[in-house]
Design a protein that fits this description.
The chain has three helices and five strands; from the N terminus they run αβαββββα. It is α+β, with helices and mostly antiparallel strands and about 90 residues long. It has one domain: Double Stranded RNA Binding Domain. The strands form two sheets. Strands 2-3-4 form a three-stranded antiparallel beta sheet, with helices on one face. A two-stranded antiparallel sheet has the order 1-5. A hairpin with a 4-residue loop joins strand 2 and strand 3. Helix 1 packs across helix 2. The termini are close together.
């Protein structure tokens, strides 16, 4: 992971939850973590990482991810064994 990925990961685990993380940065982080990402119907994005599955909705038309989606990504990463301190 590069510096940008580590920053995105740290931002996801920040409290209070930020509402300005670009969705593309989250996708790039997941790819750097070796997640498998596939496009579902509509704005659905399927993610498979460390034997964990999740489905997220890509934000549109805005590019920033809302707080609820960031919390979901955080929970998914925790369940997949990913935390900022371990990277």
């Amino acid at each position: 992971m590069n510096k940008k990925h580590r920053k995105t990961l740290a931002d996801i685990f920040t409290n209070p939850v930020p509402a300005d993380i670009p969705w593309t940065d989250i996708i790039k982080l997941l790819i750097a973590l070796d997640a498998t990402i596939t496009q579902g119907k509509g704005s659905r994005v399927r993610v498979f990482l460390n034997d964990r599955k999740a489905v997220f909705h890509e934000p549109h038309p805005e590019r920033e991810t809302d707080k609820g989606a960031i919390k979901s990504v955080r929970d998914f990463l925790i369940n997949a064994g990913i935390t900022p301190g371990e990277q």
